[in-house]
Amino acid sequence: MPAIDLIKLMPLIITSSGALIIMLMLAVRSGHKTVEIACLLVYSIGLAYLSKPTFVFEDNLFVVDGFGKLFMGLILFSGLIITFISYAYFNEKEENPKVYYVLLLLATLGAQTLCISHHFISLFLGLEILSMALYALIAYLRTRNYAIEAGMKYLIMAAFSSAFLLFGMALIYSETGTMDFAAIANIIKLQSKISPYLIMGFGLLMVGAGFKLSIVPFHLWAADVYQGAPMPVTAFIATISKGGMLIILFRLLGLTRLISLTPIFTLMLIIALASMLVGNLLAVRQRNLKRILAYSSIANMGYLMAALLSIDEDGLQTATLYTMIYFVALLTAFGVLSMLSTKERDADDLNDLKGMFWQKPLMASIMTVSMLSLAGIPLTAGFIGKFYILKSGIDTGQWLLMFTLILASIIGLFYYLKIIVALFTEAPSSAAVPEKGHPVYYFINLVVMFLLTISLVVLGVYPQQLISILHTILS
Amino acid sequence: MNVFFYIAAAVAIISTLMVITRKHPVHALLYLIVSFMAVAIIFFQLGAPFVAALEIVLYAGAIVVLFIFVVMMLNLGRETSLQEKTWLNLATWLLPGVLGAILLIELIYLISTQPNETLTIAEIEPKAVALSLFGPYVIGVELSAMLLMAGVIGAAHIGRRTIKHYHRFLQEETK
After folding, report:
1. Residues of B in contact with A20 (CB under 8 A)
2. B135 CB contacts (<8 Å, ≥6 apart)?
3. Same domain, B29 and B68
4. What number is the ipTM of this complex?
């Protein structure tokens, strides 16, 4: 690769050099605040660079196109928000919080690599960087029982699913002789009858991908890991880590239209149906907020797979729109929860939210809007996302999928409303509200969350602009 | 030759089964080395001598280094040398030894009958590997560097011990 081409991969270079610079800053013992601001700067520079229009660049490992840049922007934006909420959260904790930012940037680098990869090698490298950084991030507060358990669980499951992924790749490679997504699709479409090795290869590939996305039946880790990880890391797993894998699926199955092939279509249909129903049903009886959000994320990944299945009628565009809206709503919810967390424990019980509206009306309103958006109530962005999924599903005539989606959404409404009801019930008692140690950061976080909430409402009322932007990028 | 593939594969499976059923980590590691060697023989047979060498150097070699570390750290006197003797008695190393000997015979036979006519895949030289690693896939190499960095930093954080600073007089008091 000539040196001039390196400039095309600038978003990756910015993040990785940011991680290196912060590591060097740790060596000279910079303060927590300096490190956090440096991390914010890295994300902002990355975002600023992405907003510049560039030509499509393609080499054997990467393709930097509008789609990839959009997802990369989404990932960097989520990283920026997570960095905002991390300072107040980690400053009070018993661990040295500075290494966290290096790992955060490295994990982001992995997700960014996934965004622009169209080759199995870059896919696997990106996935491993992401997982490797996440092992340590999940167990970051390593003296807590749940953290180590969650970290071990994630480590074993991720390593195991990587093995499946590699075996799937090997089967596909042995059958097609190439590791490039587009070339694989071309060869498969030329075959009159798809060979069983290829079907098996894609099945094994979906085990690896399904683990990262926590779709049924690979969802068993989700609730425990969400619960055990520190709140900002949970937000990271729910957004960035899943976003990276989503775009791989969009590229491998969506852009190449491989999903229209019957065996792959059936496989994804079963996964989508099961994820939507199982995720929502499991969430109903939960009282732990992190676990509720984990199960809700399983269901939401099911909705996304449903959008991907209706590829013939703007399915990809719908899926991208839904991903963006889902990320914003989740970041808002996790932001509020991490602001409520105290030094000793995360605010992850339903009782922590009881009567919050009467004490902190603004935060309770933010949480309400976020939950309404996740449930898909009109006037919030979540409704627009679900509406478009339904529209493209009905246009392609997939009635079973769409009725399941509606049924699942109704079940989902129950637990989202449970959270909202808890916010507005009578305050239990005027227990002394612990004084926040970081009034400035508290205020900044509140402003950021408020802006995200505004964007959720605005997108819910005027989605036209965003949709037309997506349309120009994807067509 | 197909027969050789099946012998090496059987050795690999047997030794890997032994790895996961042994209770003692040192015994498991012995079998793990045999398993790596068997995989290396398979690679060698398929026409990838370079990968076979890497398998031995990187995987089996790393475990031997681990062994040396353990021996170095535990070499504390007579009791430990007795302990080592009980760890490595005849029953322990007989089966790995036999499996290793099978592999050795196979390797000698394979080398003595070179060039191998049954080979269907072109042999890949180290030079070709290097050229593609540092040519079109150089970004991949750099990304693996970041992967290792993530691993090292994560391990350093998880494994770090909090250093407690006692005053020397206070420490004596607590004794």
Report:
1. 149
2. A1
3. yes
4. 0.89
